[in-house]
Design brief:
TIM Barrel, 10-stranded mixed beta sheet, DNA polymerase, domain 1, two-stranded parallel sheet, binds iron/sulfur cluster
Length: 341
């Protein structure tokens, strides 16, 4: 059966017309799902019994079950959801001054194989559908009785490798008749799938693009991120420059600092050269050491030196607050542990 959450509002109206229903009924259902966050068609009390039956016969609601929920001492909460086909995904809720931010997954497993990531080693199973992506937000809102204000596609999976479903999920999250999460409060992170960056530039989405850069030479980047063998740093930076030109939006560059690997002054100098003249922001991330992982976290002193050098050269750089380190909040870790249990 079809998942009703896979449809953006325009598509849902089409579905309703095909079922012989008026499009405004689709809007009513959309509001029940995304505003009221109901878990059953029976709860949609302004619909006739006949229509509710019709919906039950044609669609599922895709309601996740929580397999596990961990809470960190800093308030970060990590969910492992049962996606109803025997697979599990993870979602992390973070509490920031500016609101509740949710880090969501876009795929079950990941093909990219970044060496610093705990998802590496988890076999890629499949893409999540748009509805499965969006249900992460709804499930957490139901569980915590809160409103999510920011969504970041930084959980398991390469969002641009599941391009159509991710873009459609953003349209659903963003719709003012539903969850109404501003596009500027939605961030898409990519390991650097260059053709998809060009495609995204044409969508006119107003979301934030975040590039996982992590190294400044092709040798080091290929070692950390095999995707660099397909699209090297020069191609990636050109795509970023073109993206900024087309969208007029600033790009965020993620740079995870690994001890004695990419955290010295020479790396900082090369990073300044790569970003010179670009409308960019750098997020420095103290790397989370994963079990069997090759990379270790840089010292606080090196991280601060790195940031100060970038700032002194006019590049806005901030150190990301480490959240949820006591609950394995780096992507993939909870799932992998759970699978071993
Ligand atoms: S860091 Fe992201 S893109 Fe890289 S392997 Fe992990 S989930 Fe995939």
């Amino acid at each position: 059966m079809k998942n009703i959450k896979d449809y953006n509002l325009d598509e849902l109206k089409e579905e309703f017309i095909n079922l012989g229903e008026k499009p405004f009924r689709a809007e009513q259902v959309f509001k029940w799902i995304y505003e009221a966050n109901v878990t059953s068609f029976d709860d949609m009390t302004n619909l006739s019994l006949e229509l509710r039956e019709k919906l039950k016969n044609n669609f599922t609601m895709c309601i996740y079950k929580i397999i596990k929920k961990q809470e960190s001492s800093d308030g970060t909460k990590k969910y492992l959801f049962d996606v109803l086909d025997g697979n599990a995904i993870e979602t992390v809720l973070m509490d920031y001054k500016h609101g509740k931010s949710l880090c969501i997954s876009s795929q079950i497993g990941c093909k990219m194989g970044c060496k610093f990531c705990a998802s590496t080693g988890i076999k890629f199973e499949r893409n999540l559908s748009s509805g499965e992506i969006v249900e992460q937000v709804l499930a957490v809102q139901r569980d915590e009785n809160i409103k999510i204000s920011n969504v970041v596609f930084m959980g398991i999976g390469e969002p641009l490798d599941n391009y159509n479903n991710v873009v459609n999920a953003i349209k659903i999250l963003n719709n003012q008749k539903g969850l109404s999460i501003g596009a500027r409060h939605i961030s898409i992170s990519t390991s650097g799938l260059v053709p998809m960056i060009y495609k995204l530039a044409e969508e006119n989405l107003q979301s934030t693009l975040s590039i996982s850069l992590h190294a400044t030479t092709n040798e080091k980047r290929s070692e950390m991120m095999p995707v660099n063998n397909r699209y090297n740093i020069e191609e990636l930076m050109q795509a970023c420059k073109d993206y900024i030109k087309t969208t007029n939006r600033r790009i965020s560059f993620e740079y995870a600092l690994a001890k004695d690997n990419n955290d010295n002054l020479e790396d900082a100098k090369r990073l300044v050269n790569l970003l010179r003249g670009m409308n960019a922001h750098v997020n420095l991330i103290p790397i989370n050491k994963i079990k069997d992982g090759k990379f270790e976290k840089s010292s606080n002193e090196s991280i601060i030196k790195f940031r100060d050098y970038l700032n002194s050269k006019g590049i806005v750089a901030t150190i990301r607050r480490e959240l949820g380190t006591d609950i394995d909040a780096a992507c993939g870790q909870l799932r992998r542990k759970n699978l071993k249990e």
